[in-house]
Every structure is written in structure tokens, then in C-alpha cells.
Amino acid sequence: MAREEIGKSEAAPASSLETGYERLGFWARIADNDVTYSFLRSPLVMAAAGITVTFILAAVFAPLVAPFDPFDPTQISLWDGKLPPAWVQGSNPAYFLGTDDQGRDLFSTILYGGRISLLVGFAAVFLSMALGIGLGVAAGYLGGWFDAFVMRLADVQLTIPGILTAILINGIARSVLPIELRDELAIYVVILAIGFSDWPQFARVTRAAALVEAEKEYIQAARVIGLRPFIIIVRHILPNVLRPALVLATIGLALAIIAEATLSFLGQGVPPTTPSLGTLIRIGNDYLFSGLWWITLFPALALVTLVLAVNLLGDWLRDALNPKLR
Amino acid sequence: MSLLDIKNLQVDFPTRRGVFTAVREVTLSVEPGEILGCVGESGAGKSTIGNAVIGLLEPPGRMAEGEIDLRGERIDNLPYEAVRRIRGRKIGMIFQDPLTSLNPLQTIERQLVETITTHLPMSEAEARQKSIDLLDRVGIPDPEIRIQQYPHQFSGGMRQRVVIALALCADPEVIIADEPTTALDVSIQAQILDLVRELCRERQVGMIIITHDMGVIADITDRVAVMYRGKVVETGPTAKILGDPDHPYTKSLISAVPRPDVRLKRFPLVEYIESAGDARKALDISTHWLGQARDFSKMDGPLIRLKDLNMRFVTKNAILPKNRVYLDAVKDVSFDIEQGEVFGLVGESGSGKSTVARMIAGLYKPTGGAIHFAGGELTAIASEREKDIYRRQMQMIFQDPYSSLNPRMRVLDIVAEPIRFHGLAEDKAHTEEIVLDLLEHVGLGAAAAIKYPHEFSGGQRQRISIARALATRPRFLICDEPTSALDVSIQAQILNLLKDLQEELGLTMLFISHDLPVIRQMCDRVGVMRNGMLCEIAETEDLFENPQHPYSQHLLELMPRLEVLSQEGLEVEADHPTGAA
After folding, report:
1. Disulfide-capable partner of B55 in A98, B83, B296, B471 (CB 3.0 to 4.6 Å)?
2. CB contact under 8 A, A225 and B405
3. Pairwise CB contact (< 8 Å): B391 & A236
4. CA angle centred on B250, ends B245 and B254, rounded to 5°
5. The domains spanning B4-255 and B338-362+378-558 adopt the same CATH topology
6. In whole numbers, what is the pLDDT of chain A averaged over residues?
């Protein structure tokens, strides 16, 4: 009867938008996604992503890409030290960006240093994320004294600049460790120090999100079923608060890379024998006034470019995932 | 030529997946002093018409075709400045939420006077006098004093009166009211509608009132335009449209309105509005999985017995107990629910009806009193394991279909969760089989299982909620306003489904609603709640025909009568069986 008539003539324009979408496969759906769409429309973000990916690939495959191995003493000669970049007079064309004070090829050292920077960055962010999300979600859902305790702790830690906390943790860890292990474990100490200094950000964000989720009716439905708090937190709340935490993690990655560079620059980070970008900048800093500008400039440029690219990605991701800002 | 003419209006929203036409071929007109109702379900495009008239289409929306004339002069193609002058001066607007349509940082006086002096050649003093007169007219006591106050110092109903005064203050010729009473309680809604009607007549203002509520339409409109998917399917005098509609959509829409006057067996004619997927399969409880509950011990007497239940919330905490501020949400509530009965709780917002439901479901721990369920005293059990036995027999359906399902879980996992937790199925394959079967019984079809909640509409989500609630094989179902977030036709479908399931499974139900006609359609007995206390418990038909408590009488008086509805061909439920099944 008239039912078919309505269905045919008037349903068509309204539903074609909705139904066409559901039939797409997985990859087609990714390509059709709003986030992908906003990504493909922003050249700046695409450039930032390109730079970040290039950096990560170059660092991961540094042994293949780099012309020299800066950690191999047989390839280093003090005679080659302090050579300027290839386009400056008195250079050795084998060392494209010049060499540092010990004769290490700067380009190779930057690639290997980027490895350490990225490793420390990712590991530290992962650590602070795990810590912050765990505490934040539990605090938000359980409330009460646990919430009060965790959040006051976070507040106290937030009053101290993160880098000071990191230096403190770093200093304590180093004095506890036996001397012969210090250099070997330095990188793990740095990861721990940065990771522990950054968790309050994650705890705050996830706690706020968990508070919102805990009020929703699907959580009440889970409680009526009888699920215990631990399962509700892990299965229901956690997946729904990860999105803001992941956005924060991108920006946190940039901050962690900077923090590692700062620690190394201050001589608190990885030892000079396995230089990170921060260590290189510090070494170069000593020679800056002797006219050896390249030792500082190129690692610094690499650091700034990497951090800027990651930051741009994080900002974009935050906006792209927030439908209100779109 | 009418006061306001909308001719062949089409509004497009270009999106990146093509152009979405929200409204097409709409032709409407309003005469001075006339109230035109624009009714339809969500997404029908009714608000878009109002926004197009006042030139406030949300970008990227644009008028693709048609014209809008005010007193024969075209207003839709004017430059921005001219449109701004017409807005407020010639066309007033009343929005749904009175809280957000007033500026919280300015006094009422400032807002009224500013609007008047912008549009009319008046001095501040004259404008102030005019504002006071207007506030007096819209029924605000002591207007000289209250005009100096801020919006937060007014109650919801008073605030909506202020918004009406604001819409009227520049003597507009047309007013557009977009769901003006949806955010208000019933008792306030009736007053506001009376006021609006009076003012329109008195000032010869033409009005378009946009609403989804047939009660509002029946109450105050002269003519109605029924909208469906962006088109006006039928226009005519209110009595004609409600009493004897021509278009099949209007017919089914009206048949879905819960009737306040008689109790029907089911809602007729509602099936085709939103296809719920596959038709639902009927259930035979004697052979079905849902009937094989192992621990449904036969019992005598009521299934639920509440005794002097109390719930007190701390609204302001302090270290010293005497400084704490409490709110008694529920005070000394006692009632029984017989096996197989549908017991209704009705009351305005804040009356404590949901709190009672939550205490029974174990979401709140009562501060006093006892809950007996299926032979056990729930309030006396401490161990979680022991509670699980009772939890399984009791499930809850929630109000908001958009927040009651975990957006990151597939429907299969959502419905399977209670089965897995309580260990009700033998293995994985059996669980899946049960879930698919349940989905078919709630009218969704097995294909729904692999999708995520966001792929479903509100009504379909509510069906998923019902399937999840059934998955523990409960004998008692708590429905907390299960349809108040849904459109009327979807509501009718969900209520039909609940009725069918109740009958087939012999479920006992606690049904909570603020909507009296819905209560009449669903419940065998009703408790009326106010301020946390139970005023009256009565058989449903007795309550509606002969209420005893003054508050019940008051509530029933405010209920829209909808007397114009046709009485033809109705399947009225005869003497309803209590405790049957």
C-alpha cells in the first residue's frame, strides 16, 4: 500500500548518504574516514608526517643509511676531528656535515643519536602513559580516598617543573647504581626519569574522561549485570578514554625528546660515548666560540625539525579527533 | 497574500558525501493571530524551516530554492544587515532551552531594554516601562523588582516567560517557537501554552510552533503541517488532521500517540515508519532457552516487596556531621509487585522514581529500609557472589539509548557479556547462537551482531538494550523511562515489543515514566510519586478514572486530553489480567 510508496519516493535522498557508507570494506573505510580526509587536505600536516616517518626510518635503519659507525673506534680518527661541512674550505668530502671534536662523522652521529632520542622518547611516553592512564582511570572510576590521594600526588608533582623531577630521579638512580653499571644503564635511567616526570598529565586527562564515562548508562548496565569494578574499568572504561590519552601521547613524545636532549645537554643523560642529539649539542656548545658552529647547528636543527613535526602532528590529531572543532 | 508565506522552500546542506536536502518543496502560510503547528519526528526538517525563515541556517546550509515573503515582501534574499533588522523586530524567536537563550551575565532589564531600543524609536525610560508592562503581561510577579535580576534567579518556567517577553518586546508580527515547552515539566508546560495562545490572539501575531509533541499540537494550534523526511505530507485544520488524517504517514503517526483515554492492546499501524529490520519472531517460553532458568524457584506472594525504603544523598559534604547538607531523594516508600504484574511509577522530574529503581537494581545502597526480592532480602546480602544469583533474575533498561551501549563493543559482545559473566551458555558457539536468537526476538535480525552501536538508530539501540537485559533470563525487568528519548512512532514500536515480551515470558516489570498516557498503556498498577514520597497506589484504570490523592488529580488534569483523536476501529484492552501469565 502507501507504505511502499513512501519508502521509495521519499526515503531515497535521506538514506543514500547513510547506507552507501556501510558497504565499504576496511581499507575503503579508512580512506573514507574523516581523519584521513582532514589529513589529505592539509599539506602542512602531510609534510610533518613525512618528516617524522623519515626520521624514524632513518634512525631505525641507521646502520644501513649512515656512511660511518660512530661507535666503532676503528672508524674514528682524531686526525679527522673538527672538519667543517663539505661546502666549506678545508673539508673532507667524505664527511658531508663535517666531524665533531673526536673525528666522528656528524651526519652518521646524528642518525645514531636520533635513534637514542626516539628510543628514549617512545619508551618514556609509553611508561608515563601506562602509569598515568592506569592511575587516572582507577581514580576516576573508584573515586573516594584513592582518587584524592592520586590526584593530590599529581598536583604536587605538577608544581615542580618536569625536567627538575627528571633530574632528581636521574640523580638518585645514579648515586644508587654501582659505578661500573652507570654508563651501561644510563639510557634506562633516563627513560625512567622522564617517564615518571610526565605521568600527571595523562592521569588528569584520563581521570576527567573516566569521570564522564562512569556516569554513562552503559556502565550502570554493566553494574546491574554484576561485573566487578576491575572488569568494568578494563573492558568498558579504558577503551573509551584512550583517544584523548593518545593525542596527549603525541605531544608527550615531542616533550620527552626535548627532555632527553635537555638532560643530555646538562650532562645528566646518556654518556658521550653513545651520543644522543642532546649530547652532541653540548659537545658542540664547547666549541661554538672557536668557530666550530656545525657541531651544534646540525644536531640542533635535526632536533628542532623532529620536535616541530611531531608537535604539528599532535595538534592536528587533537583537532581532527574532536568533532566540535572540525 | 498572508502574513508570512513560505513558497516552495528547499534547503540544502552540502557535505563531502554529497548534498543533503533537509527540506524540499515546502509551502506554508500563516495569517495574523493564527498558530500553525509544524509537527514531525526528529530529522524531519521542521527546525530547518524555522531557521530558514529567520535567516539563521547553520552553515553550510543554504536555501537552494523558493522564497519567503513577509506581508508580500520578499525577505530571504536581503543583505545581512537588513535581515538582522527584521530578526527580532518583525520576527521573534522562542527556543527550546530557556537557560541558554538568555545571557547569564546581564540582567533581564538590560536584555529587554537593549532589544527594544535597537528596534524601536524609544528612550531608555520608555523601553524600561514597556519591559515592565510586558513582564507583567507574561505573568511574572513583581516585575519592577524582578527585572533587575539575572536569569539564574528565575526558575525554568519563569525563564521561559522571560524569553517570551523578549520575543515580544519589539512588537513582532511573526513568532517562531522551536519546541518551546519540551524542556519544561508538564504543569509548567500547560501554563506556558495558555499564555502563548492568549498573546497571539491579543496581539494578532502569527506563530509557527515547531514540536514533536501531539499534546502541544492538540492544545494550541489552529492548523497543522505534518512533516516527513523534509516534506510537508499534509496540512489542514488541527481537528481534521488529528481526528481524520488522509495521508498514511499522518495516520500511523497519530496511531502511535499513546492515548490518555483508553488502554489499547497494542499500538496499531506503527510498523512501517522505521523498519526495524526483520520482523520479530514470536517466542514459545516452554521450549525456548529463555524459559530454562535453573534457579527460578517457584514462589508464592509478591516478587518484590519494598519496606520503608529511604535514600538520602549528601549534597554538601563536611567533616563534622552536623554541617553536612542532605537531600532526601526517597522517603519511606513501600510497595509490592506481584508476579507477572507491570507496576508503574509516575511523577515529575526529581520525584525520586528513578532512585527507587536504582536501589532495587543495586546501583544505590539505600540508607534505610529493606528490599525483598524472590524470597531473599537484597539489602541484607553482603557477598557479591550471593548477589549474583539475584542480579541474574533482575535486569534494567535505561533511558538514553545513546549512552547505554558501550560504543567500542560489537553488538554481539554487548549482548553476550551477561551470558558469559553468569556462565549461562555451554560454550562459545552456544553463546553466539543465543545472542543471534535474542536479536531476532527483539526485531533486529542476526546481521546486527557484527556491527557497532553507532550504526543503529535510537529505537534500534533500545532494542539492543532489551536484548542485553533478556540475556540473563530475568524474571523481573526494570524499565526506567525506556522511551522518553525516542520519537513517538519508535516509542510505540518499543512499547509494543515490551508488551509482547512481557506476555510471552511472563515477565514482572517495574515501568517508570513521567508520561501518563504511556503509563496507562503499559501498567496494571501505578504508584504516584512526589518529592520522594508515594502519594497513591491504585489499579491503572482506577487511577485514571477516579484519582484519590489531590496530586494525582492535579497531574491528570494537566495531561493533554487529545479528545479529537478518532475512536474508530480501536482494539481496546478489556479487563486486564493481573498476575496472569
Report:
1. B83
2. no
3. no
4. 90
5. yes
6. 81
d(CA A238, CA A231): 10
Grid cell, residue A185, equals 644503564
Cβ neighbours of B418 in A, within 8 Å = 225
Q: Considering only CB atoms, which chain A residues are within 8 Å of B228? A: 6, 10
Low-confidence stretches of chain B (pLDDT < 50) are: 272, 274-278, 576-581
CA distance B108 to chain A (A): 30
Nearest to B481 by CA among B393, B400, B544: B400
The partner residue sitting opposite B396, judged by closest CB among A17, A20, A221, is: A221
ipTM over 0.95: no
Q: How confident is the model at residue A19 (pLDDT cuts 50, 70, 90)?
A: very low
Q: Which CATH number fits domain B338-362+378-558: 3.40.50.300, 2.60.120.10, 3.30.930.10, 3.40.50.2300?
A: 3.40.50.300
Distance CA B475, CA B442 (A): 17
* Percent of residues, chain A, with pLDDT higher than 90: 25
Give me the pLDDT at residue B476, please.
92
Q: SS in 3 state form for A122-164?
A: HHHHHHHHHHHHHHHHHHHHHCHHHHHHHHHHHHHHHHCCHHH
Domain A45-325 carries which CATH code? 1.10.3720.10
Does the CB of A321 have a partner CB in chain B at under 8 Å?
Answer: no
Contacting residues of B for A6, CB less than 8 Å apart: 228, 248-249, 272
What residues of chain B lie within 8 A of the CB of A220, using their CB? 358, 361, 363, 396, 398, 404
What is the assigned CATH class of domain B4-255?
Answer: alpha beta
How far, in Å, CA of B109 to CA of B147, rounded? 5
> Is residue A95 over pLDDT 80?
no
Beta carbons within 8 Å of B480's beta carbon, 6+ residues apart: B354, B357, B358, B396, B397, B398, B399, B512
Could you tell me the three cell numbers for A281?
A: 649539542
Q: Looking at the complex, report in whole angstroms how far the Cα of residue A14 sits from the nearest Cα belonging to chain B.
A: 7
- Residue showing cell 544469583: B389
Q: Which of A16, A221, A228 sits opposite B404 (nearest CB)?
A: A221
**Using CA atoms, how far apart are residues A108 and A95, in angstroms rounded to an integer?**
9
Q: How far apart are CA A116 and CA A272, in angstroms?
A: 12
Q: Taking CB atoms and an 8 Å limit, are B394 and A236 in contact across chains?
A: no
The pLDDT of residue B226:
93
Q: Which of A38, A224, A227 would you mutate first to test chain B, the one with the most B CBs within 10 A? A: A224
Give tens-digit pLDDT for A37-63: 888 888 899 999 999 999 899 888 888
User: Is residue A224 within 8 angstroms of chain B, CB to CB?
Assistant: yes
